[in-house]
Amino acid sequence: MAFSGPAPGLFACGFHLWVLLERRKSPRFRSGILSISVATNLGLLGAFKYFDFFSISFQRCLVAMGVDVSLPVLDIILPVGISFYTFQTLSYTIDVYRGKLRATDQLLEVMLFVSFFPQLVAGPIERASHLLPQILRRRKVTWQMVATGSQLALVGFFKKIVIADGLAGSVNFVYGSGQVSGLSVVLATYAFAFQIYCDFSGYTDIARGISRMMGFDICENFRLPYFATNPSEFWQRWHISLSTWLRDYLYIPLGGNRGGRFATPRNLALTMLIGGLWHGASIHFVAWGAYQGFLLMVFRMFSRDSSTIADRVPRRGPLFWVKVVAYFQLTCYGWLIFRAKGMTTVRDLTLSILDIGNYRWEAIGLANCYKLCILVVPLVVFQVYQYYKNEMEPWSRWPMLMQAIFYFVLFYLIVLFGAPQQSAFIYFQF
Q1: What Cα–Cα distance (Å) separates residue 291 from each residue in 268, 270, 286, 317?
Q2: What's the mean pLDDT when you consider all of the chain?
Q3: With the CA atoms of 235, 240, 244 and 250 taken in that order, what torsion angle do they form, in degrees rounded to the nearest 10?
Q4: Where is 352: in which H helix or E strand?
Q5: Confidence class for position 304, pLDDT limits 50, 70, 90
Q6: Are 97 and 19 in contact (CB under 8 A)?
Q7: Which residue stretches of 26-142 are H helix?
Q8: Disulfide engineering: 95 pairs with which of 12, 75, 100, 204, CB 3.0-4.6 Å?
């Protein structure tokens, strides 16, 4: 059961259902428990996050058809992180049902798995098969774990405070204004691409670093996503915990790529539509999911490459980097849809980009160009280094003097150039 709001009794009921699911062998009984658990999880998520969206959307459709009706709305506060821990508990239920995991009878340990504070509000979406055994066994925290955990958390804090929050002001201005040139929209969209990456991956780094300092290892959620050359590879690098969750618990049960020529595109489209809706109860999130599904469908139609990034060594050569830059443009247009907060804004910003005659330098455009050069270029250079080293935490292998200089520089960059007004983590809203 989802641990939503003031519902410890409901969670305890869900805990007993997990235990029954483990102990009872009757297929019909187990299917019934699975149905109850999944329906309750999705029901809570739907009530809190999607009821008002569907109610208002349906009312607008009826009004457009000439039916004057007023449908109820709940207008309730969305619990922080409900999408993340709902998916976590769903995966636990399904894994126990499938026999991939044994349900534990330790209530407090299961509660800790569901409410593990470092990643509770913005992921990664942990699997019980990975995190729960770490909770159940005795942990030994070493100096190496504390050192590397604090290093990773510092890097994440730098990404958030200096880069993401440093880009936020200009992005907010452009996306909140209808009177900017196409060039300003392009630069602001590039800025948002790095803002959301540093904001979300920065949170993940902090969560992973804090967890490591306490003796826990939580999953990697980002692996240089803007070095992807196609949509399939992008989703193997971006928000890995969500993309693998959707693959294992939605795409594959729908039939995956086994259903024939037309079934696979349908499964991809449906999976990404739900992935878009997972991000928020708004039509532009659905449109973003549809856009991502379209890219995946087109790629699957014209590509026979089924390998994963884990099978590959770093690629080199001009053609590879041309592909990286080209696909980054498609990724950025997706971020325009994601950030626009409405399809009318998507239309207006798209028209501004297409109006080449309206490309002119403005103060906000110059500010974004300056910030991209100062904040993003050094990040990209460092990530090229990470890419060729094939190591996400290369600093942990440096000589002690180099490490000390690196952390000293990061600390004073945070102190000197941290954004004066910090904003909440973007994925807190999901």
Answers
A1: 11, 12, 9, 29
A2: 85
A3: -70
A4: helix 343-354
A5: low
A6: no
A7: 27-45, 51-64, 82-98, 107-114, 128-136
A8: 100
Structure tokens at 40: 């309750």
Q: Taking a C-beta distance cutoff of 8 angstroms, is the pair 334, 325 a contact?
A: no
What's at 374, amino acid-wise? I
In single-letter form, the type of residue at position 101 comes to: L
Give the other-Cβ count within 10 Å of 268's Cβ: 24
The token duo for 142 is 């070493």
Tokens linked to 152? 């990773």
* Distance of alpha carbon 201 from alpha carbon 178, whole angstroms: 30
User: Is the CB of residue 302 less than 8 Å from the CB of residue 204?
Assistant: no
92: nearest Cα among 73, 116, 75, 74? 116
Task: State how far the Cα of 267 lies from the Cα of 249, in Å rounded to an integer.
Answer: 12
Q: Is the CB of residue 1 less than 8 Å from the CB of residue 89?
A: yes
Report pLDDT digits (tens) over 175-224.
Answer: 887 677 888 899 999 999 999 999 999 999 999 999 999 999 999 999 99
Q: What percent of the chain has pLDDT over 70?
A: 91
| DSSP class of 362 | -
**Residue 240 vs residues 29, 152, 225, 248, 324: alpha-carbon distances, Å:** 33, 18, 10, 12, 19
In DSSP notation, 384-423 reads HHHHHHT-S-GGGGS-HHHHHHHHHHHHHHHHHHS-SS--
Which pLDDT score, from 0 to 100, does residue 266 have?
87
- 16, 130, 239, 279: which is the annotated catalytic residue? 279
User: Is residue 279 annotated as part of the catalytic site, yes or no?
Assistant: yes
Task: Name the burial class of residue 178, with classes exposed (0-12), middle (13-18) and buried (19+) by CB atoms within 10 angstroms of its CB.
Answer: exposed
CA-closest candidate to residue 165, choices 125, 202, 210, 213: 202
Per-residue pLDDT tens over the stretch 339-385:
998 899 999 999 989 988 778 877 777 777 888 889 999 999 999 99
Q: How many CA atoms lie within 13 A of 47 on its CB side?
A: 8
Phi, psi of 313 (to 5 degrees): -90, 160
